[in-house]
Design a protein that fits this description.
DUF2784, transmembrane helix, transmembrane, elongated, 125 residues, 67% helix, mainly alpha, single chain, DUF2784 domain-containing protein
Length: 125
């Protein structure tokens, strides 16, 4: 059972990463979702630039320990992302692309929000 739960945690972790990366675009359709995304995006930055551990990594490590395994070697990103998904030496480029995607998604959300909030033009008959 611990193996299944560890696997489920990995799936949730990848879903969270996708949401951190692209969730700003959901605000184009659901503007209030931007507040949830800001929290997740900030959390993603914090756990990647400070020694603060991600609770999903801690949870996966917990289930790994129940299986008699050790912690993820190097953490979630080092084990699953850097190398297997993002080739070595490309991390800086991916970081820049991620910031561009975030800025584009937030700019689009803001523009759509402004458009929806603008008063309708008066129609003269």
């Amino acid at each position: 059972m611990a193996g299944l739960l560890a696997g489920a945690t990995v799936v949730v972790h990848f879903a969270a990463l996708l949401y951190i990366g692209f969730g700003g675009f959901l605000a184009w359709r659901w503007p209030r979702s931007i507040f949830v995304h800001v929290f997740f995006a900030a959390w993603g930055v914090v756990v990647n630039v400070t020694p603060l551990a991600c609770p999903l990594t801690a949870l996966e490590n917990h289930f790994r320990h129940q299986q008699g395994l050790g912690d993820l070697p190097g953490g979630f990103n080092d084990h699953y992302i850097f190398g297997p998904v993002i080739p070595d030496g490309m991390t800086e480029y991916v970081a820049v692309i991620a910031v561009v995607v975030l800025v584009v998604s937030y700019t689009g959300a803001y523009q759509l929000w402004r458009h929806r909030r603008a008063p309708s033009a008066l129609v003269l008959k």
